[in-house]
Amino acid sequence: MKGKSMSMSMSMSMKMKMKMVTEDTEKHREEAINEEPELEFLLQVGLVKDFKLSKPFRARLGPTDDKWNLFLPATAFDPHCNADDVRHAVPVRVYDTCGHEFEMMLKKWERRGFYVLNRGWATFCDQRRLSDDDIVAVRTFRHAVTHGLCFVVTFKRVMRKESEVIRVRVSRLFV
Fold first, then answer.
1. What is the rounded average pLDDT for all residues in the chain?
2. What are the tens digits of pLDDT across the range 118-135?
3. Distance (Å) of CA 62 to CA 58, 67, 134, 169
4. Could you confirm whether the keyword Nucleotide-binding appears in this record (predicted)?
5. DSSP of 27-56
6. 67 contacts 128 by C-beta, under 8 angstroms
7. pTM across the whole model
8. In whole angstroms, what is the distance from residue 118 CA to residue 133 CA?
C-alpha cells in the first residue's frame, strides 16, 4: 500500500510540474504575441523552441547604414550566442513574420563589441522593401527541431511626407 501511495504522490508531482511547464510556455507565447502581434504566425508554426524569444533589439535604418550588414550590440546578444562559434562566423537562419527563411552569417567583432549579421541582409532588406527611417526589431531564438541559433526580424515602416519622397525622386533624376 505504501508503494502505491508513493507512486500516486509522484505522479501528482509530475502532473504539477507538467502543468507549470505548460503554463510557463503559454506565458512566453502570450508575452511575445502581446508585444508584437506579427510574431503569432511564427509561433503557431512551431519553429520557436519552447516559445522562448529574446527581448527585441530595435534599430532605425539610416542613410549612412551599410545595407550589407546589420550591427547588433554584443551586450544584447551574448546570452544567446556561443562566442566561440560566432567568432569565426556561423550560418544562421533569419525569418520574417510570414515564416520566409533567409540564410545569413553571424560573426562577432570582439574589438568593437558587436555582432554582424550579413551575407543575406541586403537581400532581406530588398525583398522586404526596407528603407531609411524604417525601424527593425531583431529577436533570437533556438529552432524547435535543429536547436540552431535563429533570428526573427519584424519591422515598422516610417511613412514619409510626400514632399520628402518627391524631393528624393527628383534628386535621383539629376544625379
1. 71
2. 899 989 999 988 888 889
3. 13, 9, 8, 17
4. no
5. HHHHHHHHH-GGGHHHHHHT-BGGG--PPP
6. no
7. 0.66
8. 20
